[in-house]
Every structure is written in C-alpha cells, then in structure tokens.
Amino acid sequence: MRSTKYPDSKQEEFLESQMRFRTVFDLSTLGNKIILPGLKIIQVNPAMVALLGYDTKEDLLGTEILNYSPADHHQHWQTLQRHLWEDSSPSFSLETILIKKDSSLIWVNVTSILFPESGRHLGYTIVEDITEKHALRLHKEEFISIDSHELKTPITSLKAVLQLLNKMVRKETIINEKISTLANEAQLYTAKLIHLVEDLLNTSKYERGELHLQKIIFPLSHVIDGCCNHVKLDRKHYVSHSGDLNVKVYADRHKIDQILVNLINNAVKYAPDSEEIIISLERLENSTKISVIDRGQGIPPKDVAHLFDRYYQVEKGEKENSGLGLGLYISSEIIKKHGDEIGVKSIIGKGSTFWFTLPDK
Length: 361
Ligand SMILES: Nc1ncnc2c1ncn2[C@@H]1O[C@H](COP(=O)(O)OP(=O)(O)O)[C@@H](O)[C@H]1O
Ligand SMILES: [Mg+2]
Prior knowledge:
Layout: H1 8-27, E1 31-35, E2 41-44, H2 46-51, H3 74-86, E3 91-99, E4 105-117, E5 120-129, H4 131-144, H5 148-171, H6 177-207, E6 215-219, H7 221-227, H8 229-233, E7 238-242, E8 248-252, H9 253-270, E9 276-283, E10 287-294, H10 301-304, H11 327-338, E11 342-347, E12 351-359
Parallel strand pairs: 7-9
Antiparallel strand pairs: 1-2, 1-5, 3-4, 4-5, 6-8, 9-10, 10-12, 11-12
The structure holds adenosine-5'-diphosphate and magnesium ion.
C-alpha cells in the first residue's frame, strides 16, 4: 500500500483527507464519478446511479461512459478525453446528452478535473442534470422567434391609449383618486412590458446578425440627462454624476441610451438599498469610460463571469425577478459591435460597478 510511505502523522493526515473526500463524493447531490483515461468508470456515487436511473453502483462500475452516450455525442467525450489527458488541461466542462436505463435522454453539464493517484491520472467528473434548464432555453428561443409585429403593434397601441387616458385623468378636476392611481399604474406596467418585449426582440434580431449602428458624435449629457427620470420618480434612489457631461463620443446614441437605462434599472432592482447611484465619466486616451456604480450587496464571483451571457440571472432566492436576463447580454453585444469594452467589478457587501468605453471619434 502506498500509505506505508508516509510517516505516522502524515499518514493520518492522508487517511483523514481520503475519508473527507469519500464523504463529499458519496453525499454530493450531483452525480460524481471517477474514470480512467479510456473512459471506463471505476467509482460512482449514489446520485450518479440515480441520475442514470440504475439501482446500484455495481450496475455502472467497470462499464464505459460511451455506453450511456448517444453515438452522435461520443465526440463530446473524446474532446474531454483529449483536453484532460493529452493537453493536460486542469479542468474541462461540456454539455451533452446521456441515455438513462429506461432509454430516456437527459441533458447534462459535465465538469471534469484530473487528479493523480498511484502513479496514474484519473478523471474526477461531476455530472448535473440540466434537462429542465435546457428545455426552458429552447422554449424561450422558440418564443422569441415569433413575428415581432404581432407583439409590437398591440403594445404600441396600448401605450398610446394609456397616455391619452392619463392626460384626460389629469385634466379632470373631480376624479376618484383610485382611478387616477390605476391609470398611472397601467402606464407604468405597459412601460415595463415594452421593455421586456424589446429585450426579446432585440435579442432575436442580434442573433440573426441584424445589429446595425447609426453612429454620430454627441455629448454624453444627451443620454445621461434623459435616462434617469424614472429613477428620480421612485424616490428611494437618486442619481449623481461625476466627470464632464459635455464630453463627446462617437456612438449609436439610441443604443447607448438603452444600455444606460438597463444599467440604472439593474442598480435600482438589484441594489435596492443603495440610495445613491453614480454615473461616472472618466477620460481615457482616445475614449471615455462610463461607469454606473451602486453600493448594493454585490455579485458573487462565481456569477460575475457569466453576467453577460444570454438569459443569465443570479439566483436571488425569494426576491422579485422581473427581467429575462437579457439586458446585459444585449448591452455587451452593442458595445462589442462598437469595438469597445464592457465589464463589471463587484465586491460582496460593497456594491457593483458596471462600465463600458466609447471612442471619441
Ligand atoms: N447592479 C447590480 N447588482 C447586483 N446584481 C446585478 C446588478 N446588475 C445586474 N445584476 C445581476 O445580473 C443579472 C443579469 O442582468 P440583466 O442582463 O440586466 O438581466 P435582468 O435585469 O433581466 O435580470 C440580474 O438578474 C442580476 O442578478
Ligand atoms: Mg436588466
């Protein structure tokens, strides 16, 4: 046994860490397995057995992963094999399909790391069933492909009607306060709906490669002055500025406005306790850096890397979740198309800074 090579205290430490590893391995609610370079399974946990719909570990031990993979997905495992064992990548992730015992198919996310044991390298693989998430993603995509006019036309009419209604309500001298509140709320909800629909439609448009910019030179004050009216209305937050608002940039004004509105809305929604939201403008060599800063609870590091992904939302427990996870994706597509940069810096408990740059000309 290799453990005889260790002095007593080291050996104890080694055995202890072995035991800890075993406990974590067995108790994990995600499927865990250990594989040889040839993809043969040499260890599994109960969650892995359940995930594939089998009864006991022995059903899986000694079999090969490819037995549970449809032929047209074999290449996924071969890629994983190559990355880990040939290219010696420390870890590798992929999404693929597995076949359960009852022949049904599930989508899984697989993360593998390589670890040395007894002179050879084994693959430690964590498997998560993402079938539901996957179906949801497909549904969203199908929904988005709806002809945009069918959604847009009635909402635009609704908006016009509500504007008119609100105008009439304001003109009345004797009006039930309740009616006035309702008319106002209807207008606010329509604005929210328009926002969501626009996000969806823009996403599908950009997916089809239809993101066209109309660049002009304009002072940033033109977008910053208009973007925060709704925030001043909500009374809990106020927006302050730092830097020179008159600085000019060369960009698509309407789209930059859209980005700012999303960043401010996000700060209001996801940093509700941050009274102050700061828009800061900072001159760089040939460009300007625009930051939206809040002092909210911040974003966990594991989520930060994914914030600009399509549909990505940080899990928020019971909190209100009114968006679709598209705002930042759309913002980053727009900024990338400008050839500029967008990013975020967030510290837990201190707040978040979302920033992007725009060129002078
Ligand atoms: N200022 C912020 N503070 C904390 N979390 C944020 C902030 N801005 C964005 N987020 C997180 O990023 C996610 C993605 O934002 P976004 O793409 O605009 O989508 P949506 O607002 O529709 O959820 C949000 O769901 C939220 O979890
Ligand atoms: Mg948003």
